[in-house]
Write a structure and sequence with these properties.
This protein is of the alpha+beta class. It is about 40% helix and about 10% strand. Strands 1-2 form a two-stranded parallel sheet. β1, α2 and β2 form a beta-alpha-beta unit. The longest helix is centred in the middle third of the chain and has 19 residues.
């Protein structure tokens, strides 16, 4: 995720809530880009969350049913 070791260790020691809602809702995106952002990204965040010593809540907001370009 591009974190330096000091920040990574600080997060592992102190974070108790993660809210993950980063994704792409571009349904015309290349499939490999969409998978990288919407599948691999959350998997990396979850793997990181499993290391957190004080984690109480992990909230994930999916873009599965988003139609932001529809009126």
């Amino acid at each position: 995720m591009g974190l330096d070791e000091n920040l990574k260790n600080e997060l592992i020691e102190n974070v108790n809530v993660i809210i993950h809602c980063a994704a792409t809702a571009d349904f015309n995106a290349r499939l490999d880009d969409a998978v990288k952002i919407n599948v691999r990204g959350p998997m990396e965040v979850l793997a990181f969350a499993k290391q957190m010593k004080r984690l109480e809540n992990f909230v994930y907001a999916s873009t599965c049913y988003v139609n932001s370009d529809k009126k």
